[in-house]
Specification:
Radius of gyration: 18 Å
Shape: globular
Structural class: alpha/beta
Number of strands: 14
Strand order of the largest sheet: 10-9-8-11-12-14-13
Helix content: 25-40%
Distance between the termini: 44 Å
Number of helices: 8
Largest sheet: 7 strands, mixed
């Protein structure tokens, strides 16, 4: 199992932590946890480049502490701190060691590991909340950067006829398969890759990644979206909205709405 570095980053009140989180997302971060006065960031030992980290933090005069964590301790640490999430009083997200919820439209069971997507972060919350407003019945769905598979699982539970998901992280592949099985999904298909398919079309595309990847792949995503199809994106900040609208327009994608939570945004586009 992989070893990790846990970086405890002290965030002064004068600095917008969302900008720091966005910068960290560019450094091969494997996971993070937000606390009142700090951010805990986890990096695989093999991926950790302390010079790059210092470049991001030093220019903002931010200090940090580093702790080495052996891989065998990770899952126990994660499970001990994983709490269920309820989104819009409709969707409950829990781990397999939590008791089931009652009165929810849908419940998603996620094994808490290093893959991104548990509903705790604002971007995942926003994606799930907006998905609940759309009609997925009989629709084909593409999940770009699936992580834990939480959005793919919900898409099937909402009635999608086919869900095709990709992620280029081997750890996400293993976790995705576990979660698909735990939720008894039968219409999800997965591939470990980092580029969208070229010869398929989808009614709904989900992409909760980061600004730079989204900008790079907007042209490719627009080509595989059916006319009047919906593209939901997140992983971007309020300061990125205008840039994303301009980039999307280059691929004939029209802006439908923007939702905000904790300075993070979800944006919806259509052809």
């Amino acid at each position: 199992m992989d070893n990790y570095f846990c970086i405890a980053i002290q965030i002064p009140e004068s600095i917008e932590r969302d900008k720091i989180l966005a910068a960290l997302a560019q450094l091969s971060i494997s996971g993070f946890e937000e606390k009142e006065t700090e951010i805990l960031a986890w990096f695989k030992e093999a991926d950790f480049n302390e010079e790059n980290l210092k470049t991001v933090l030093d220019k903002n005069h931010i200090t940090y502490k580093k702790q080495f964590i052996r891989g065998k301790n990770w899952n126990a640490e994660w499970e001990a701190n994983f709490e269920p999430v309820i989104i819009e009083n409709k969707i409950a997200v829990r781990a397999n060691f939590h008791p089931p919820f009652e009165g929810m439209q849908h419940e998603i069971v996620i094994t808490p590991k290093m893959s991104f997507g548990t509903g705790h972060h604002a971007t995942t919350y926003l994606m799930i909340a907006e998905m609940c407003t759309l009609n997925f019945a009989g629709k084909s769905v593409f999940d770009f950067g699936a992580g834990t598979g939480i959005l793919s699982i919900l898409a099937e539970k909402l009635g999608a006829s086919k869900v095709f998901s990709i992620d280029n992280d081997p750890l996400s592949t293993e976790n995705f398969m576990e979660n698909i099985e735990a939720n008894f999904c039968k219409k999800n298909f997965y591939s470990e890759k980092n580029t969208p398919p070229e010869n398929e079309k989808f009614d709904i595309i989900l992409a909760n990644i980061n600004k730079h990847i989204l900008q790079e792949f907007l042209p490719a995503l627009s080509k595989i979206l059916y006319p009047k199809g919906q593209l939901l994106i997140s992983g971007i900040l309020t300061t990125d909205v205008d840039d994303m609208i301009q980039e999307a327009a280059k691929s004939d994608l029209k802006h439908r709405l923007t939702n905000v939570k904790d300075s993070w945004v979800l944006m919806s586009f259509f052809l």
